[in-house]
Amino acid sequence: MNGRPPEIQSLLECGCGKPTLDGVAILLAPRLSEWAASPQFATKILSEVGKRRRPELAELILTCMSEGRVEVNVFHFSAVISASEKAGAWTSALHFLREMTHAAVTPNEFSYSAAISAFEKGGQWEGALGLLTEMQLDRLCPNEVTYGASISACARGSNWISALELLSGLQVALLQVNVVTISAALTACEKASRWQPAMSLLELMARKKINADRISFSSAISTCEKCGNWELAVGMFRAMRLDLHHPDAVS
Which segments of the protein form a coiled coil according to its record (predicted)? Predict the structure, then answer.
């Protein structure tokens, strides 16, 4: 048993077909007064909807809350943006981020980070960087997740220059550089066939005492291969065998 009221369980399970506003309103009606008094209950349900990658259902819930005069706050909107991110729906994420302004709700770091992650999954690196700039203009501080998603977005777009600039910005902000962010930057260098900055990134990992993983090594080796630098590629392959024991088929 999950302890949820039956109508809420029905709400989470509805969607074998396309949910309707009327259908969702009927299911939520018994709970809206409770949500008005305790908004965290709505946040919990919206988060569960997000885990199920149902941004269209989350939007209907928000609409029912507004029509039922339940105050919608930043946590509710952020949960819905996160639902869009998990579904890879960047247009939906942007829509909800803009709706926050119309509802006089100020986005926070989580709101922007979730939207940027949605743009990254959608391969929209320019939009991701635009939101990062907008976030900073709003005097919000990006965190490791925000930078990581932005760097990954640049990697998808082969934008190695912006990826390296973001990695530098992460360090200037005294945030922790990890294997995920550096690997994303390495991927950007690989796609752009830039072996020299790729080597610099491996050196950065060594200085920071960050253990390179298969993704890091494979990206660096692939970069050297694309640039015709076979000796360096073979050297790294041997190093990877010593560090990881089992290089993958890509390497």
Answer: none
